[in-house]
Amino acid sequence: xxxxxxxxxxxxxxxxxxxxxxxxxxxxxxxxxxPQALIEAERCxxxxxxxCATACPTGIDIxxxxxxxxxxxxxxxxxxxxxxxxxGGMCARVCPTEVxxxxxxxxxxxxxxxxxxxALQRYATDAFFANPGAPMFQRxxxxxxxxxxxGAGPAGLACAHGLALRGHDVVLFDARPKLGxxxxxxLASYKTTDNFAQxxxxxxxxxGGIEVRTSQQLGRDITLDGLLAxxxxxxxxxxxxxxxxxxxxxxxxxxxxxxxxxxxxLRQSSDLSTLPVGRRVVVxxxxxxxxxAAVQSRKLGAExxxxxxxxxxxxxxxxxxxxxxxxxxxxxxxxxxAPQEVLCEGGAVTGVRFAATALDAAGxxxxxxxxxxxxxxxxxxxxxxxxxxxPAGKAMALEGGRIATDxxxxxxxxxxxxxxxxxxxxxxxxxxxxxxxxxxxxxxxEAMSVPVALVA
Length: 456
Fold this sequence. Notes:
CATH topology of the largest domain: FAD/NAD(P)-binding domain
Shape: globular
CATH class of the largest domain: Alpha Beta
């Protein structure tokens, strides 16, 4: 928020010329051209039992879709992708392919460059969305069953799509005014340009059978008991609503923000020149959110942006590609440091004092006794999020602070499934959340296909 207090401490909007915003927030990785895609597709060996397909959390038949691109059959390629991953267009943009399918590519054995699977996946899905033609999937005959899906992020959308295809009626609830979850509110703008998240949602809903109810928050507008009373089953794709604390005193001061809120505000802005940013920005954390917040701060015109992480580079949850992207865009990354105090003056942040850290002989993270201070007029907290259990209103079994489920997403409560980031044991990846939703849809369908009514 641009206020007199924020401006006094160095936080300003309109740090750049208007033309600079369009350039800075344009597509970070432009799509392949047709000649590029055909050449890249020819590099694929079309392996039998391809390791790249095994490495894909949604099990996309990667050699098959790449072979179809080589044959100039983009619709067929898109079908192979979207059958396995209904959010395959977004996943092509944001998946860490370098540690998933592309890391498993056999081209890595004799060369230092795998097939660009992510770029080819985007090429095929972009071609389809640009000219979809006849519907790709047909909904089955109505079953008369009704399922509530709470949370319209990747897991909820995939579950709703899978259930609707099988003929069930789905009511899709979300607390925000737009569907998409992190795809709409939590990713850097340069990763998903031209309103792609909403275009993908519109296509997914076009299968029919999905009723949308936005601005409906579990625990406030709807309850789990109420949903179970009026639906045959419930899927929870609640995400992570809590933000971890720094572990030190967090003063109420201008310039201290949660990184997720900063990113969401930027994603929903119609005029980036109106968004205030500090001259010196410190981002605390080591994940993808930290990188997205830091890079976008630079692209908004911040002069100095530093990511500070308490461990080394190998321990950061942001991939090496993301770390390099941050550094390429002028972000400094400092490792082995933990915040000790947020410094303020006159109600505005002025910096952060850090303690140097190291691993002791037992492998425990400890402070070395050395400290340093980074000047800052904006501090963005990106040290992880947590599942907030209270809105569900039921004593579901938890594991590690998230909802415990079996492999198909069944929770400890009858007729309740869960998936995505709120589910225990995941890697907090968009593509994995999609797979959770897919598997839960299959499990719910099978449970509702037995001749015993699920609604009392």
